[in-house]
Design goal:
Elements lengths: L8 H4 L6 E2 L17 H4 L1 E6 L5 E4 H5 L4 E8 L4 E12 H5 L10 E6 L4 E5 H4 L5 E6 L2 E2 L9 E3 L12 E7 L6 H4 L18
């Protein structure tokens, strides 16, 4: 019997209790950052459990090798957007800049306005994760995280920090902003890990 390999593939890519959208909803806490001069107002810091801390200016960060990926994203509020094309700096290119100590098991991403998000190091290093500068061929808008947004598609989209400014390498897991406010520490959309009690 012939089975069309394209049949139901999109439906099968949407986790439980999610609905597909073709839009790109804007959700965040706090104000959208504004910059007048990224060369003086923006830097990216790698710190914590590393042999030597590194801070990059905006021009240095943007000079790192670029890559692209296509993935699906799933928001904890219930929408999923399929076939997103991202361009940016792959995680592995950023990790080449530091020697991470063996006791590091987690990262905390630090973003504008003191916003943070925790991720296990092994998940952070998953192939295809990147620090995005473009979405579907266009520069990110400020509302979607310009000038730099982390993208980790296998976790709920709140883990994909907007306006990211640094990576802290840690031995033990700690709550980030939304985790302190009741969200799940891990956030697997296929297991519906939305809240701390899930």
């Amino acid at each position: 019997m012939f089975i069309n390999p394209a049949a139901d593939t999109k439906r099968d890519r949407i986790p439980p209790n999610q609905k597909q959208t073709t839009g790109f909803p804007v959700l965040h806490y706090g104000e959208v950052p504004e910059y007048t001069d990224l060369s003086t107002e923006w830097s990216f810091r790698l710190f914590g459990l590393v042999e030597e801390e590194v801070t990059l200016a905006y021009e240095q960060m943007m000079a790192l090798p670029k890559g692209g990926t296509t993935n699906d994203i799933h928001c904890v509020t219930g929408w999923s957007k399929l076939d997103n094309e991202w361009e940016g700096i792959p995680v592995e290119e950023v990790l080449k800049l530091v020697k991470v100590k063996p006791e590091a098991k987690y990262v905390m991403l630090h973003a504008e306005h003191g916003w943070t998000v925790n991720i296990p190091l092994v998940d952070f290093m998953t192939n295809g994760n990147l620090f995005a500068t473009k979405h579907n061929g266009e520069d990110l808008t400020p509302e979607h995280g310009w000038p730099l947004r982390f993208v980790i598609p296998h976790l709920y989209f709140w883990k994909s920090a907007k306006w990211v400014r640094g990576i802290e390498f840690m031995e033990k897991d700690k709550q980030g902003f939304w985790e302190k406010n009741g969200y799940n520490m891990y956030g697997d959309p296929w297991k519906e890990q939305r809240f701390a009690w899930d």
